[in-house]
Request: fold
Amino acid sequence: MSLDIDALRNEKVRILGISGSPRHGTTDYLTELALESAATASGIETDFLPLHKVKINHCIQCERCLKLDPGQSYEHYCPPFHDDMDELIPRFLAADGYIIASPVYEMNYTPLLGIFMGRFRPLWRVFKGVHRNKVGGAISVGGTRYGGQETTVQLINSFFLLNEMINVSGTSGGYIGACAWSQDKLPPEFNDPSGEEKVRDLGRRVAEVTKIVKAGRAIFPDGRPNLDSLDENPVAE
Ligand SMILES: Cc1cc2nc3c(=O)[nH]c(=O)nc-3n(C[C@H](O)[C@H](O)[C@H](O)COP(=O)(O)O)c2cc1C
Reply:
């Protein structure tokens, strides 16, 4: 097999930025800043998803998604609820890399982001490996200087890891994700140049690693299933 290096170099890579704030505020601003920075790498397409604009139910652990009937596909991933997740799942799957951001709520990510992430259970449990070797980086913003930004990015990182993704941060000094301090201020009063620098670094790094991994998968196929061409639906264990 010969590789078309130029085709690999020019292949488009899609980065999805998700803001977990229930309002249009600083987290939206920082997510868009990270996407802007990601787009400075060549061949990057970005998509921005602010969760305050969508209506989704929380998982009730009915377990019906783990026992899909023959012929049902991932499009039936959530038998009890047909809400905005019907459109968000394909949109999520279309991305190669992710930037997930949240305001700090009680030293954690927001309940809204938790509801969104909780709806991915059937995908990783039933359609195993569907996010394998995608790339993810986390951002948090808190009102207090040391208000739980690090615990929040750590918990978002767990979502990437449990989904078999490659978890990245920024450049040196980016630690485990980009942490910002808002002092409860909204843009344009929000003023944290150091936090913004970390956010830009993280956006760029997610883009670079996503490009590298996508090109590398042409050489080392990783078994990530293509849900649209599955002949048979796997059965959950
Ligand atoms: C319910 C609630 C809980 C919060 N808990 C924390 C916290 O534990 N630590 C912290 O630093 N800030 C906390 N904050 C402040 C927000 O994280 C902060 O104002 C953030 O910048 C809001 O981002 P947004 O503008 O994107 O909504 C909390 C805010 C709310 C509404």
Remarks:
- The domain at 10-222 is CATH 3.40.50.360 (Rossmann fold).
